[in-house]
Design brief:
8-stranded mixed sheet; globular; 4 helices; alpha/beta
């Protein structure tokens, strides 16, 4: 279920209706707002950390929770725009093949088709077919993109709709989302400006990844 951005209004004493201030500024916010969307402890920890440290630098950001195979897209202020099931790299793992920048995706062995963990600056772009996508690791040819036509045997649409995270491992490493979710949530935010995506680890504690990011914040 996608979470739409909620807006509230309050009536003033003279009968005028004013927009409610539902978003805290980056300087004062201490937690991300998931609205009513369920999320794992790791996803909430990551999003709260981003907002608390303003690590997204006033840009929209996203959390990829590989263990749950879900993507959460947030406004620059840390309010959820939407969440969706996603397809991920075929192989579990938090690292890319060492020479991936010099290889075509089709050359990757099954064990090399991972969605690597880390903090990535995203950028709108296009693939070799001219389709608009959101790059998060251009050198490794990794992006957030729509579900595309694929061999029937891969059953990608059915995998996206499954309640099991394990069956959603099928891509070369990209984060694949439903077409409608890309066009209604991803494209209007990450698809029109630069942002940040945090791909959470699955082979080590999430706190370890953000502990390293904390060192970078402290060094600024």
């Amino acid at each position: 279920m996608w979470a739409a951005v909620l807006a509230g209004t309050i009536a003033s004493s003279n009968g005028a209706v004013l927009a409610a201030q539902t978003e805290a500024s980056p300087a004062t916010a201490s937690a991300a707002d998931f609205l009513l969307e369920p999320a794992s402890v790791d996803a909430r920890y990551a999003a709260d950390w981003v907002v608390r440290h303003a690590d997204n630098q006033q840009r929209p950001f996203a959390i990829v929770d590989k263990r749950d195979a879900r993507l959460y897209v947030f406004t620059a202020q840390g309010q959820l725009n939407g969440a969706s099931s996603v397809l991920l790299g075929l192989a579990p793992g938090d690292e890319s093949a060492p020479d991936i920048a010099h290889r075509e995706p089709a050359s990757l062995a099954p064990a090399e088709r991972t969605t690597p963990a880390g903090r990535y600056r995203t950028e709108p772009g296009h693939n070799h077919k001219g389709e608009d996508i959101v790059w998060f690791d251009y050198d490794a040819s990794l992006a957030i993109h729509r579900l595309r036509p694929a061999p029937p045997g891969e059953r990608r649409r059915e995998r996206l709709e499954s309640a099991s995270a394990d069956v959603k491992r099928i891509s070369f490493g990209c984060v694949v989302v439903p077409v409608a979710f890309y066009e209604q949530i991803v494209e209007p935010s990450l698809g029109r400006q630069r942002g940040v995506v945090y791909v959470l680890p699955e082979t080590r504690p999430v706190h370890e990844m953000f502990g390293r990011l904390q060192l970078s914040v402290d060094a600024r």
